[in-house]
Amino acid sequence: MMTMNKCDYRRLPLKASSERTGIDFEASTLDEMDAIETRINEQLISWYKRFAKTNHVDFDTASQVLKKARSGDWKMTLEFYAKS
Length: 84
Fold this sequence. Notes:
Low-confidence stretches: none
Largest sheet: none
Number of strands: 0
Number of helices: 3
Structural class: mainly alpha
Helix content: over 70%
Order of helices and strands: HHH
Shape: rod-shaped
Radius of gyration: 25 Å
Mean pLDDT: 82
Distance between the termini: 71 Å
């Protein structure tokens, strides 16, 4: 068993502060990641709706088509699609 010396005891507040900072950072990072995921999902839904409207299909069909599509299979470029 290791014993702590005076120097070790003096470092305890610094270590505790550092751990709190790490925990706070992790919490804020997780909150930010959740917000980013929400924005990405909103944008995907917007693209699915736009694709559905442009191709005269319902949302579920558009979703299935886009999920199965590979980028090389697309007839339109993203630039062209964004302009339409």
